[in-house]
């Protein structure tokens, strides 16, 4: 592929909102500085986080903004002594505060990428970073031990897909809350029980399985009011990992549960400008690639989508529903 050109294509979000106002636009070709790589982007995975932030906006974004955090591409240019060298295919999770990856070329710091093994297809690898890293961090924060009971809210999502498998590796008993159409897949991944989150008697189902004491650990992915409901199901001094924040916790509930709460933030590595945390993203990426390659971890099904504003818009809208099971992956063609 050629990089001898002045401009490149990118899909821009002109303003936040549920209508996803996306257009294809021309951008100037970027140039790498010291310890940076010029990468020809080949695949970009879209996550629920991309859809939610495209709808609601983000305080550090300027518009028009380019979406897309998870990407795979080939290094086209690297400085002298900078690794990985040109020609290497790499995987990475992009800086949340900067322009995203729905574009033909990008400049990325070399310490935050990991090399792609030949055994794993790039369109599969690209769905690993955001969801897989969030799952790994959540498992770390929960300090899971053999025999712990772990409940996962909104278990139909990609983070839960990985969290279930890694929790089972730790010897935990996993309880998944999701719509019925997802139960077969979640049980196949290793969940011990699947609860119908739309059922009126879900609380009775929980008490029947674990008693009145509550779960040892909980992974809350939606945030907001769902966090308070999850907290009610936690045992005294239990552990909770939260992906999307939470509001005010009633004082009586806080004292009743005395929870140990950990917040999971992949983007925090970039927002805090923490070099060690950014390198940790690379280490987690390498672990995910290794575990998938060895067959220890199964990946979600994917759906390849053309690099087109309308297609991306439809994919983002579908991510905000609970019905989508395949992960949308944008394929960017190069001449």
UniProtKB/TrEMBL annotation:
<dbReference type="GO" id="GO:0035925">
    <property type="term" value="F:mRNA 3'-UTR AU-rich region binding"/>
</dbReference>
<dbReference type="GO" id="GO:0070402">
    <property type="term" value="F:NADPH binding"/>
</dbReference>
<dbReference type="InterPro" id="IPR013149">
    <property type="entry name" value="ADH-like_C"/>
</dbReference>
<dbReference type="Pfam" id="PF08240">
    <property type="entry name" value="ADH_N"/>
</dbReference>
<feature type="domain" description="Enoyl reductase (ER)">
    <location>
        <begin position="17"/>
        <end position="330"/>
    </location>
</feature>
<keyword id="KW-0521">NADP</keyword>
<dbReference type="InterPro" id="IPR020843">
    <property type="entry name" value="ER"/>
</dbReference>
<dbReference type="InterPro" id="IPR036291">
    <property type="entry name" value="NAD(P)-bd_dom_sf"/>
</dbReference>
<dbReference type="GO" id="GO:0005829">
    <property type="term" value="C:cytosol"/>
</dbReference>
<dbReference type="Pfam" id="PF00107">
    <property type="entry name" value="ADH_zinc_N"/>
</dbReference>
<protein>
    <submittedName>
        <fullName>Oxidoreductase</fullName>
    </submittedName>
</protein>
<dbReference type="InterPro" id="IPR013154">
    <property type="entry name" value="ADH-like_N"/>
</dbReference>
<dbReference type="InterPro" id="IPR011032">
    <property type="entry name" value="GroES-like_sf"/>
</dbReference>
<keyword id="KW-0560">Oxidoreductase</keyword>
<dbReference type="GO" id="GO:0003960">
    <property type="term" value="F:quinone reductase (NADPH) activity"/>
</dbReference>
């Amino acid at each position: 592929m050629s990089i001898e050109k002045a401009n490149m294509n990118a899909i821009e979000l002109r303003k936040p909102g549920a209508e996803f106002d996306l257009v294809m636009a021309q951008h100037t070709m970027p140039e790498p500085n010291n310890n940076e790589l010029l990468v020809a982007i080949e695949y970009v995975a879209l996550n629920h986080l991309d859809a939610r932030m495209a709808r609601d906006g983000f305080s550090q974004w300027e518009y028009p903004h380019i979406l897309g955090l998870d990407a795979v591409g080939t290094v086209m240019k690297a400085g002298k002594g900078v690794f990985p060298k040109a020609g290497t295919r790499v995987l990475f999770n992009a800086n949340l505060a900067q322009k995203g990856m729905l574009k033909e070329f990008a400049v990325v710091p070399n310490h935050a990428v990991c090399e792609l093994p030949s055994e794993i297809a790039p369109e599969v690898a690209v769905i690993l970073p955001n969801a897989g890293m969030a799952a790994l961090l959540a498992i770390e924060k929960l300090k899971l031990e053999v025999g712990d009971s772990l409940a996962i809210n909104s278990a139909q999502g990609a983070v839960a897909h990985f969290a279930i498998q890694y929790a089972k590796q730790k010897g935990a008993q996993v309880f998944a809350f999701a719509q019925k159409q997802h139960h077969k897949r979640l049980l196949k991944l290793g969940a011990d029980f699947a609860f119908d989150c739309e059922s009126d008697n879900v609380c009775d189902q929980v008490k029947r399985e674990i008693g009145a004491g509550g779960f040892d650990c909980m992974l809350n992915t939606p945030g907001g009011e769902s966090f308070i409901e999850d907290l009610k199901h936690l045992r005294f001094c239990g552990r909770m990992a939260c992906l999307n924040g939470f509001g005010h916790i009633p004082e009586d509930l806080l004292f009743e549960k005395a929870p140990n709460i950990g917040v999971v933030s992949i983007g925090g590595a970039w927002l805090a400008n923490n070099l060690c945390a950014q390198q940790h993203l690379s280490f987690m990426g390498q672990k995910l690639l290794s575990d998938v390659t060895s067959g220890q971890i199964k990946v979600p099904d994917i759906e390849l989508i053309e690099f087109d504003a309308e297609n991306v818009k439809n994919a983002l809208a579908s991510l905000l529903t609970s019905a989508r099971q395949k992960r949308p992956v944008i394929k960017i063609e190069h001449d």
